[in-house]
Design brief:
This protein is of the alpha+beta class. The chain is built from ten helices and ten strands. It folds into two domains: about 150 residues, Jelly Rolls (Sandwich), CATH 2.60.120.10; about 100 residues, Homeodomain-like (Arc Repressor Mutant, subunit A, Orthogonal Bundle). A six-stranded antiparallel β-sheet has the order 1-2-9-4-7-10. Strands 3-8-5-6 form a four-stranded antiparallel β-sheet.
Length: about 280
């Protein structure tokens, strides 16, 4: 019997943690996308395979995966019965941009102590009132992540997100970010940047490992998640994030998140760390 997928997401009152996300998927596959935050992932059952910086990775038993911001990745079940995962999205106050390159080169960390601490943090975040414990555990986790990544500094290649300033790909990304809500056509971008549309698409995809339209959609989904967790109405979220209407948002949200925005926005019962 195939179990039904489930999703639980919330924003805790702990500085540095952007979002907590628990999910059980049997068939859902994430398309290529980016996050503004660090993705700290543990898999409790099954396994996930994913591509990061054009290289295939997986989540072996008892590892912790750290996916850096602004580096495209996807994800799909690596076992027949899917996977159950717990994710923390951490802002740059926990790990700054200098650690992006080292994380790209080695995102999967075989560290039982770190994994145990991440699980303990999830447990603390599941109980309102335990914020001090959560902050303390987060501090230890961030320190251990830096210990893993710091020896690699200076020995890794630059992350794709650090494209050379002034290049057309970097300029296009700045334009897409600035016009995220209203959108920009390829013809408009071409006129603004003074480059052929085909060259823009190829340059952007080569530099960042994701096509311009994929980048825009994933950035809009990330913003929609934040607004939904703020309790904003679905119609308002669709308009604020640049989608044509609720249906348009729902279609892309389901493809990216494996659930509808309405279900995602429901407040979870945070009484168990595996909820």
């Amino acid at each position: 019997m195939v179990s039904r997928p489930s999703v639980s997401a919330w924003r805790p009152g702990v500085p540095g943690v952007v979002e907590v996300f628990h999910a059980h998927f049997t068939e859902h596959a994430y398309p290529m996308h980016v996050h503004d935050a660090w993705t700290l992932l543990i898999v409790d059952d099954g396994a996930v395979r994913y591509d990061l910086d054009r290289r295939e990775h997986g989540t072996p038993h008892d590892t912790v995966s750290l996916l850096p911001p602004q580096v495209p990745h996807n994800g799909s079940p690596a076992t027949a019965h899917g996977f159950r995962k717990r994710v923390l999205y951490l802002d740059l106050s926990q790990l700054d941009e200098t650690f992006i390159g080292p994380a790209v080169d080695g995102p999967d960390l075989a560290d039982p102590l770190l994994r145990g601490r991440v699980a303990q943090l999830h447990a603390a975040l599941a109980h309102p009132g335990d914020e001090l414990e959560a902050e303390s555990r987060l501090a230890l986790i961030a320190e251990r992540l830096r210990t893993h990544l710091r020896p690699r500094l200076g020995t890794t290649h630059p992350a794709p997100a650090k494209a050379a300033p002034g290049g057309v790909a970097h300029t296009l990304r700045e334009l897409l970010d600035a016009r995220l809500r209203d959108g920009v056509t390829l013809a408009e971008a071409s006129g603004h940047i003074h480059a052929h549309p085909t060259h823009l698409v190829r340059a952007f995809t080569t530099a960042f490992g994701i096509a311009p339209h994929q980048y825009v959609t994933s950035r809009r989904i990330s913003e929609a998640r934040r607004l939904l967790l703020d309790g904003r109405p679905l119609a308002e979220v669709a308009t604020a994030t640049g989608f044509y209407d609720q249906s348009h948002l729902t279609r892309h949200f389901r493809r990216h998140m494996g659930t509808t925005p309405g279900h995602y926005a429901r407040r979870p019962l945070r009484t168990h760390p595996h909820s």
